């Protein structure tokens, strides 16, 4: 059963619905990523682990919305979905450090991904998806892209996205940051 969503996704609201100037890590010549943001946007390690490391024990995940939803054109394209396959389990969360929002994240998982062990991700609750992804023995991460977010009321500055593959099953993760992570 599909649950209707009366408002736009937090992430989608601040990222253009048309194809924005996303920059693949190896194609940064399309625009300049400030030096202070490069490690945050293109680090291939676990964002969850990085946030926990700077949290002094106060890290949390707040689920803003989750359920079945029609993906945007660009989300469907990145996940290789077409036609009726454009429906996915989507999850919008805010990752907080010491009670303050640091990252707004959106995860999209096609029905075909939510089979086998991955079916539990529909009931992941207030746990970080990164915890699952970075402990999965067959996880592979696709190319990372970055996007400069226009001024907004959530103080989001930059976003990144990539498709993770768990035994060839895709999961799209988009993360929008309020500030860069510490470099040390």
From TrEMBL:
GO biological process, one term: ubiquinone biosynthetic process
A Pfam family hit: Chor_lyase
UniProt KW keywords: Cytoplasm, Lyase, Pyruvate, Ubiquinone biosynthesis
Keyword Repeat: no
Keyword Cytoplasm: yes
Metabolic or biological pathway: Cofactor biosynthesis; ubiquinone biosynthesis
Positions with a binding annotation for substrate: 91, 129, 175
Annotated GO MF terms: chorismate lyase activity
Main location: cytoplasm
Gene3D superfamilies named in the record: Chorismate lyase-like (3.40.1410.10)
Cellular localisation: Cytoplasm
EC number: 4.1.3.40
One annotated Gene Ontology cellular component of this protein: cytosol
InterPro entries: Chorismate--pyruvate_lyase, Chorismate_lyase_/UTRA_dom_sf
Catalytic activity: chorismate = 4-hydroxybenzoate + pyruvate
PANTHER family assigned to the protein according to its UniProt record, in alphabetical order: CHORISMATE PYRUVATE-LYASE
Family: Belongs to the UbiC family.
Name used for this protein in its record: Probable chorismate pyruvate-lyase
